[in-house]
From TrEMBL:
SUPFAM superfamilies: ABC transporter transmembrane region, P-loop containing nucleoside triphosphate hydrolases. Residues 130-388, 808-1051 form the ABC transmembrane type-1 domain. It is a multi-pass membrane protein. InterPro entries: AAA+_ATPase, ABC1_TM_dom, ABC1_TM_sf, ABC_transporter-like_ATP-bd, ABC_transporter-like_CS, ABC_transporter_C-like, P-loop_NTPase. This is Multidrug resistance-associated protein 4. Residues 712-722 have a biased composition (Basic and acidic residues). It is found in: Membrane. The gene is LOC106151549. The keyword Transmembrane helix applies. GO terms for molecular function: ABC-type transporter activity; ATP binding; ATP hydrolysis activity. Keywords: ATP-binding, Membrane, Nucleotide-binding, Transmembrane, Transmembrane helix, Transport. Belongs to the ABC transporter superfamily. ABCC family. Conjugate transporter (TC 3.A.1.208) subfamily. Residues 441-663, 1087-1320 form the ABC transporter domain. Residues 690-722 are annotated as: Disordered.
């Protein structure tokens, strides 16, 4: 849901963590009720707990903003660049790392004081992760020392008692349990900190967006901003989990080194030399990650920006047949992006490869050095070394590489956010209080530039607006009228002169901005509902009749950018918003152009000069008949003042506008035609009725009466349609789809073979150590015995040397094989995952771009964009590493551990089976809830992106109304809703991890005690005892990590699932077919329909019912009708935006039998709202490069844009901003006309193409259409009756049927005709005028026919 401007309702479910006891928090018992509910029912948003107070978006952003502002001041004093990283350190207690170091040293030298130190630290600093992290690492080291004593118990020469064996087994078990508790407390706190940093950064970025100046906006793009919030900030979640290990690593390594020195002496240097080599390697890889991340992010920004534009303008893309050019652009951007993702994946493969063989290589180095030093290899020394290296395995092979990798990526994110936060901000200046008598605006000789290279946009403009004055601003297209309002709003920077404003300002933009919420919410704009004022505003803006005709009145949800409203309705909603705001000063940018003259007259008299009477107002207008009522008139041309004064003064001065007024007034009656009560787009006829229709509310509520109808003015909760979300388990089809995208059966076989081979070789190498060390110990005992018996020393030496070298060669061969297999496994796996990511993205893009238009009408841009940003980002970055973890830990390590342990001690099978059954139950119990929470996390993320996207679209409006605080609050509400899901997901992960580690602990305890028992009963050797105990201890990380990662994999596979959902959308018909029409089709433009029916969606109601019509070649047809009558659906039917029933032929060709591009490419359309995309002007006119520059310049000359465009830098290659915002609305409309001229199609559809242009440009467009499309069939959807009264025929729609279809003059002869009723509704004077127009057109045609005969 995008901005609703009402505080999102928080469920009355306070987090049980607030009242949980210490044990419940440590073991996450407070989650059990939610898990029980999730196992039985599908979870929804209302089931999630409220956020904790310290996790609120507003609270966190205030802390970070305060720290950032302090850093800005300190940087200014230092004379250096501000550091966002320093601000993060100030805002969040990262300095506790120092406390952690002190705690570590205290724990190391006085471990028995752990409880008291922990208690003191909690009192002073809270349960922060660093202390638990240190305590966990130390407990692992102490555990290893105890393990050495346990292995010594199994030595043949040991004289330890069984009681001592049990004591050592108990000590190992207790240290294991201690590590479990500390590990999950540490990671939970660190994960929560990462979440808090992400939330604060998102809010900071959003608030900065609201303050960006035009100069700042020009240095970024909407795609870049969306990418910062949807992708970049996610790096904090991972980075803060591991970053502390970067400094913990060397301290722990030193401790391990000291212990190893005491055990094997200088021989440990060989292994540690290799261990130390990993540090610079990982640092180098971290630097590489940072560089690759920067390059990847830039390309992702570009792709997201184009995708945002594409989704927003999909209707135009489909009608212009531009799917292929956009697909080529996205494909090229994705290829560039994937190139760097591939490099990053290879780097990750290299970084992950040592996880399988680092310990073995260090063991090999130490053993060789130890033996060559003349020492005897014993199980005690071997498995103490192995246990110590295993205790550093997580640090060396996972934590340190991940710390460097994610730390480097987070550093890039911090730099990108820092650069964004340093962009230029808007200087709003001083706005006085409304209580002052001097409310108004003073513009004093201002000069302003949008682009310094293009010359001044405004030059030496001077005027004042005081009291209750109305200042009208007029001028031709591109004169600077809208720019003047932007300068007053501080959106356009003023380089010289001053603008003084006094009082609050309300602004009505030329292009109406309506967001996806109810119509009422769009009017209230966050203000409290006042029934009387609201009704007065609705009446003043002539919205009452429109609201009556909407499916749910003013509670009807309008789509993204008001897609469910007509241009006139959107303009009046924006006007109503300004009136309800009750500002001191009003800036109205041409609100009358999108409405007909009668409605315009109503608005001018009852709204601008009625409701707003007594308020200072600036009205930009092309409706020159109203300027006589203005107190002052400001005439602009090319950014300069042509005239300023009253109407009589300017008329006396002979200003150019007088001739325009004279011409306009001459035809004023021709234009004095009301807007039809039929202004609507097809979505009200379809989606509003079908997709969003709900049962009517109960009667008996307070209403306001008008014209015998009632308007429901009660408050009502309006819900955005819920985003589709799957239920139940992630099916195997999702996994198979991912593996298929990896490469299909060959890829699956390759992955399986690599994993099986690595598992066999890894287990064999460790088993050989146990066997070899036992042999060595027995051999040395035997040699010692033979020495007593007097055996020849030379013979003993040769035998010893041969056996030792034999053992080294075997172990060397196994380790070498493991190295080769590990590198091959990781590199191939990550390469396959990149292939999968590319294929899944491409498949989803192809599906989305081919989806029917109602997908885009009924889903906010952010909802669709979220799948191309967040979900694709998850598949690119996180899914491969998680998948790799699962395969490595479950299939290679854990399975090998269990098999080896059970083979050595079959008794272990009994507790193993029991614990396995418990594990299956816990995992099943967890996954049901975890899946739902992860899916909710995905769907609650979409409103955050949608809100940002909507804000970017209406940024100037939000700032003009000073609604930044309300929008920031709404953004915080959306973030808090997402936090509810994310925090539960984070907590659930630790709930599972804790229980899995407790199962591992039970397994290890069983192994330890059974080993002690088995010494006597199974004659267990020291080597095998060391092997099974060491293996079982290694489960501390491997088991819980592997299983938890498998659950995380299923959660992350929801991103694949979401991508697949959009990859399997039902497509439109084929773009091209074998049944192609003739190459010169259509030759004439005749359109015939027989029993044509049309509906949106498979189960939607019919919006066109059994139409029969025959439009003759070259005929000019007007299309009129009431709201929802079906006129816009008729155009959609003609373009086959949704498949139709019945038969429609164009020049004898059935349009349902040919491809969509073959149809749409031969029909031109000029929409009411001009659609342009960022990129060169040439690509906006001719994306296929079909026409030469000569043809394009010719088309531009015909629409009088050649001079303007030739003056731009790059001319045809001049890059337009998103939506063409660096051109005026009129210039954008003329470019759309140029498109139609270039295509030279025989059929042209006009959707009130002149609504947003001045009178001169209107005449130019109408004249161009008459001249250039004289030989074409022209269909005009009428928003003003005067535009179709001279048509050859008029098609009148009603309730999805053609009520009438004949010449206007003939229809008006019938008093009961539908057209006559529409004309009569305009009033007597206007009706007479329209009838006169129809009669004149009829007589003109009659004379033409007479002359022909």
């Amino acid at each position: 849901m995008v901005p609703t401007m009402e505080k999102e309702r928080m469920t009355k479910r306070p987090s049980p963590m607030l009242s949980a006891n210490i044990l419940s928090k440590m073991l996450f018992w407070w989650l059990n009720p939610l898990l029980t509910k999730g196992k039985e029912n599908k979870l929804v948003v209302e089931d999630m707990f409220n956020i904790l107070p310290e996790d609120g978006s507003a609270h966190l952003s205030i802390a970070l903003e305060r720290a950032w502002n302090k850093e800005l001041k300190m940087a200014e004093l230092r004379g250096s660049k501000p550091s966002f990283m320093k601000a993060l350190f100030r805002a969040f207690p990262l300095s506790f790392a120092t406390v952690g170091c002190i705690a570590f040293l205290e724990v190391h030298y006085a471990y028995t004081m752990c409880h008291y130190i922990q208690k003191s630290l909690i009192v002073l600093f809270g349960t922060y992760p660093f202390f638990f992290l240190f305590q966990q690492q130390v407990s692992l080291v102490i555990q290893t020392i105890l393990l050495r004593g346990l292995i010594r118990y199994f030595s043949p020469e040991s004289n330890m008692t069984q009681w001592e064996g049990y004591m050592y087994a108990t000590g190992v078990s207790l240290m294991y349990l201690l590590s479990v508790v500390f590990h999950h407390l540490c990671f939970f706190k660190a994960g929560k900190l990462g979440m808090q940093v992400r939330i604060a950064c998102c809010s900071m970025v959003y608030k900065k967006t609201l303050r960006l100046s035009q100069a700042g906006l020009s240095e970024t793009t909407p795609g870049h901003i969306v990418n910062l919030i949807s992708n970049d900030v996610n790096k904090f979640d991972k980075a803060l989990l591991y970053i502390n290990f970067a400094w913990i690593f060397p301290i722990v390594i030193i401790i391990v080194f000291v212990i190893l020195w005491n055990i094997i002496g200088p021989s440990c240097l060989a292994g540690f030399a290799l261990l130390l080599l990993l540090a610079p390697t990982n640092i180098g890889l971290g630097t590489l990650y940072g560089k690759l991340r920067t390059k990847t992010a830039v390309r992702t920004d570009k792709r997201i920006r184009i995708m945002s534009e594409l989704i927003s303008g999909m209707r135009a893309v489909k009608m212009y047949c531009w799917e292929k050019p956009f697909a080529a652009i996205i494909s090229q951007l994705r290829r560039e992006e994937i190139k760097y993702i591939r490099f990053t994946s290879y780097a990750r493969g290299i970084s992950a490869s040592p996880t399988l063989f680092t310990t073995n290589i260090m063991m090999l180095s130490n053993i060789v050095a130890y033996i060559m030093g003349g020492n005897t290899l014993t199980p005690e020394s071997v498995f103490t070394m192995l246990a110590l290296y295993n205790s550093t395995w997580f640090l060396t092979n996972s934590a340190l590489p991940l710390a460097i990798q994610h730390g480097s990526e987070a550093k890039v994110t911090i730099r990108r956010i820092q650069n964004f936060l340093l962009l230029d901000e808007l200087d709003r200046g001083d706005t006085g209080a409304s209580s002052s008598a001097a409310v108004g605006i003073l513009v004093n000789n201002i000069t302003a530039y949008w682009n310094m290279r293009l010359g001044p946009t405004l030059k030496d403009i001077k005027f004042e607006l005081l009291g209750n004055e109305l200042v009208a601003v007029i001028g031709p297209v591109g004169a600077g009228k809208s720019s003047l309002l932007m300068a007053i709003l501080k959106e356009l920077p003023v380089t010289s002169g001053r603008i003084h404003t006094r009082g609050s300002i309300a602004y009505v933009p030329q292009q109406p901005w309506v967001y996806s919420a109810s119509l009422r919410q769009n009017v209230l704009f966050g203000k409290e509902f006042n029934q009387k004022r609201y009704w007065d505003v609705i009446q003043a803006c002539a919205l009452n009749k429109d609201i009556e005709d909407l499916p749910h009145g003013d509670h009807t949800l309008v789509g993204e950018r008001g897609v469910n409203l007509s241009g006139g309705q959107k303009a009046r909603v924006c006007l109503a918003r300004a009136l309800y705001f009750d500002a001191d000063v009003y800036l109205l940018d041409d609100p009358l152009n999108a409405v007909d003259t009668v409605v315009g007259k109503h608005i001018f008299e009852r709204c601008i000069n009625g409701f707003l009477k007594g308020k200072p107002r600036i009205l930009v207008t092309h409706q020159l008949q109203y300027i006589q009522a203005a107190d002052k008139i400001l005439v602009l041309k090319k950014g300069e003042t042509v005239g300023l004064g009253t109407y009589p003064e300017l008329t006396a001065a002979g200003i150019d506008f007088v001739s325009l007024v004279t011409h306009y007034n001459k035809h004023a009656e021709e234009d004095d035609t009301p807007e039809l009560p039929a202004l609507n787009s097809p979505r009200i006829e379809s989606s509003a009725k079908h997709f969003r229709k709900k049962p009517s509310s109960a009667m008996g509520k307070p209403t306001a009466e008008t014209n015998g109808r009632s308007l429901d003015l009660t408050e009502k909760k309006v819900d955005q349609p819920e985003e589709m979300r799957s239920e139940g388990t992630i099916g195997w089809r999702v996994y198979m789809a991912f593996l298929s995208a990896c490469g299909g059966p060959p890829a699956i076989i390759s992955i399986a073979l690599f994993n099986i081979s690595c598992a066999v070789v890894l287990a064999s190498s460790d088993w050989w150590l146990a066997h070899w060390s036992n042999q060595e110990e027995e051999r040395m005992n035997m040699l010692s015995q033979t020495a007593v018996d007097g055996t020849n020393e030379a013979t003993k030496g040769n035998m010893a040397s041969h056996d030792i070298m034999h053992g080294i060669y075997i172990y060397l061969g196994l380790v070498s094989g493991l190295v080769v297999l590990s590198i091959g496994r990781h590199m191939s796996f990550y390469a396959l995952c990149v292939n999968a990511s590319q294929k899944l993205h491409d498949k989803m893009f192809d599906s989305v771009v081919r989806a029917p238009i109602y997908l885009f009408d009924n889903n906010p841009v952010g909802r669709i964009l979220n799948r191309f940003s967040k979900d694709v980002g998850q598949i690119d970055d996180f899914l491969p590493a998680i998948f790799d973890d699962v395969l490595r830990n479950l299939s290679i390590k854990i399975l090998g551990v269990i098999v080896i342990v059970v083979i050595v001690i079959p008794w272990i099978l009994i507790p193993t089976v029991l614990l396995l059954a418990l594990f299956i139950y816990i995992n099943h119990f967890y996954l049901a809830t975890s899946r739902d929470i992860k899916r909710l996390e995905g769907t609650t993320r979409s409103p955050v992106i949608s809100h940002l996207s909507a804000t970017l679209q209406g940024l100037s409006t939000v700032r003009a109304f000073n609604a930044g605080d309300e929008f920031s609050s709404e953004f915080d509400n959306h973030q808090d809703t997402h936090t509810r899901a994310w925090f539960l997901f984070l907590s659930l992960s630790r709930w599972l991890g804790t229980r899995l580690d407790l199962i591992s602990a039970a397994f290890t305890i069983s192994v330890c005690f059974i080993c002690v028992i088995a010494k006597e009963n199974l004659s267990l050797t020291a080597g095998l005892a060391g092997l099974v105990v060491t293996y079982s201890i290694s489960l501390l990380f491997s088991f819980q990590w592997g299983v938890r990662q498998s659950a995380e994999l299923e959660n992350q596979m929801t991103s694949v699932e979401r991508v697949m959902e959009y990859s399997q959308l039902e497509p439109e018909a084929a773009l091209e077919t074998d049944a192609k029409p003739p190459s010169d089709w259509p030759q004439h433009g005749a359109i015939t329909g027989k029993q044509v029916s049309f509906h949106y969606g498979d189960f939607g109601p019919l919006v066109l019912r059994h139409l029969d019509f025959d439009i003759k070649p070259k005929e000019k047809v007007g299309i009129v009708g009431r709201t929802g009558a079906g006129k816009s659906s008729f155009v959609n039917m003609l373009f086959r935006m949704v498949e139709l029933g019945g038969t429609v032929t164009i020049d004898g060709v059935d349009i349902s039998k040919i491809g969509l591009h073959e149809l749409r490419g031969n029909i031109s359309i000029i929409p009411q709202d001009p659609i342009l995309f960022s990129g060169p002007i040439r690509r906006n006119l001719d994306p296929f490069n079909t026409f030469s520059d000569v043809h394009i310049w010719g088309a531009l000359e015909q629409v009088q844009l050649k001079t303007m465009i030739s003056s731009l830098p790059g001319q045809l290659q001049y890059v337009l901003s998103e939506d063409g915002s660096n051109l005026s609305v009129g210039q954008r409309q003329l470019l759309c006309l140029a498109r139609a001229i270039l295509k030279k199609n025989k059929i042209l559809v006009l959707d009130e193409a002149t609504a947003n242009v001045d009178t001169r440009t209107d005449r130019l467009i109408q004249q161009t259409i008459r001249e250039k499309f004289k030989e074409c069939t022209v269909l005009t959807i009428a928003h003003r009756l005067h535009t179709i009264m001279d048509s050859d025929r008029v098609m009148v729609f009603g309730e999805g049927k053609i009520q009438e279809f004949d010449e206007p003059f003939i229809l008006l002869q019938e008093k009961n005709s539908a057209l006559c009723e529409l004309v009569d509704q305009t009033g007597r004077h206007n009706g007479d005028m329209l009838r006169k127009m129809a009669q004149q057109a009829h007589m003109s045609k009659k004379r033409s026919w007479t002359q022909l005969l």
